[in-house]
Specification:
It is built from ten helices and four strands; from the N terminus they run ααβαββαβαααααα. The protein is α+β, with helices and mostly antiparallel strands and about 300 residues long.
């Protein structure tokens, strides 16, 4: 079974998800929470008998509170994010809500300063770059060839861009914000991506050491077939658990679970159908360069 002969199709599938992700990130970007922008967050609880829409909450306090986002975080519980407000303004907001919706209980009120949010952005970017760099160096060192490290990083970039693109689209159309939990999911996606990739690469290396005369494409194809069932079985258990959390886990962790789910799916796909084909593409480019040098001589 020659899976790798379909590698142009695998690249097309990746482009099918990468192109919309890149376009959305370019046009809309991500919708940051107050963790990154700074501001105030008021969480309220109303009677479960009262059915509220997010727009109703936004309109009710719009003249007092510059609301950025309203999310339902549980039965009868709503999180209202916006600009910085004082305790006095917060009490006025609660009073306005009680006038329109009856009994309203304050669950939590937090304020994140601009200095803290700017520091968090810097640390987030540094963490992502540091993790990606360390993984690239580790793979390069373990496999003694640059191509393995480069292909592993490209596979991780593939997964990260798709995850960022999904949340860019969700943020634009559904108002979903990215917060510190999303950063956790992004870093976890990097580990999902590299985990199975290293398994595939290790099998390729073993086969290459034992069968140096066999064409490289055949070795990669064999390694993919031998590790595919293991990768799928391992990932399906994680995917089922995350899918259950997305559907049944409640509002507070739904988007975090969805981010992990997207990362698990893309990481499983990229290790076999992105990283391995990229190795073959690398070898094709190297072979063509060698042939050009021979022809010049």
């Amino acid at each position: 079974m020659l899976i790798m002969k379909y590698r142009p199709l695998f690249f097309l599938i990746s482009l099918f998800f990468l192109v919309p992700s890149i376009i959305s990130l370019t046009l809309y970007g991500l919708k940051p929470s107050i963790d990154f922008t700074g501001g105030s967050m008021l969480e309220i609880r109303v009677s479960e008998e009262v059915s509220l829409e997010r727009d109703q909450v936004r309109e009710a306090v719009g003249d007092l509170y510059d609301v950025q986002n309203v999310q339902q975080v549980g039965p009868g519980q709503y999180s209202i994010d916006g600009n910085f407000v004082t305790n006095e303004v917060k009490e006025n907001v609660l009073g306005k809500l009680r006038e329109q919706f009856g009994e309203v209980e304050e669950v939590r009120f937090d304020t994140v300063g601009a200095t803290v949010s700017a520091e968090l952005i810097r640390k987030t970017a540094a963490a992502v770059l540091l993790v990606a760099g360390l993984i690239a160096v580790y793979v390069w060192h373990q496999f003694d060839e640059l191509k393995y490290g480069v292909c592993a990083i490209l596979a991780m970039v593939h997964d990260s861009v798709i995850l960022l693109g999904v949340f860019s689209i969700l943020g634009h159309f559904l108002g979903v914000e990215v917060d510190i939990l999303f950063v956790t999911a992004l870093l976890t996606t990097l580990s999902f991506s590299i985990h199975d990739t290293i398994v595939v690469f290790d099998r390729i290396r073993e086969l290459y050491r034992k069968n140096r005369r066999v064409p490289y494409e055949a070795l990669v194809n064999t390694a993919v077939i031998e590790t595919l069932s293991r990768s799928i079985n391992n990932s399906v258990t994680i995917i089922i658990m995350l899918l259950a959390l997305v559907l049944l886990g409640g509002e507070t962790i739904r988007w975090f679970a969805l981010a992990l789910l997207v990362g698990a799916v893309t990481g499983t796909y990229s290790s076999t159908f992105t990283a391995a084909p990229l190795l073959l593409l690398w070898e094709d480019i190297v072979a063509k360069r060698r042939e050009l040098k021979r022809n010049r001589r």
